Amino acid sequence: MAHDVAALTAELTDMAAADHQLAVRANSDDPAEQLAWRRLTARHGDRLGEIMDEYGWPTAELVGEEAARAAWLIAQHADRQLDVQRRALQLMQQAVSAGSARPRELAFLRDRTLVNEGRKQVYGTQIAGVKDGAPVPWPCEEPERMDELRAEVGIEPFDEYVAQFSMA
Description:
- It is a single chain.
- Helices cover about 60% and strands about 5% of the residues.
- It is built from eight helices and two strands, in the order ααααααββαα.
- The radius of gyration is 16 Å and the shape is globular.
- The termini are far apart.
């Protein structure tokens, strides 16, 4: 089992590194680069599904902090595999309830999954586009409570968050 977990830790970390390397291609003007990104995220989503079958949610206790974050990133980017995202969301929710995963990351995955389902997000973590130089979130269930809800899960206020992406 220990060898399996060590291999899993390395695999998740490698998958996140490949994700970071190709992420710049996600919105490329070149269809071949977009396709490379889609293939990578689909392959990773499929593999995360197998990992969840075998281990449940890969928590920091199981695989370490970096690999647990990698699993979250892979779920976050499995946009064309709603079944994988929904399952990750469910398992991660249980892990958060048990104190073995971060509410902040769960909030991002929840918003991402809701947006992918064509529903309103809760925390305003998913950006729809830019208007007059300012990032605009996808519609939120309760926009007036967005910052309050963000604070509950450890996410900075929306204005601070989007300042990181400002198109100055």
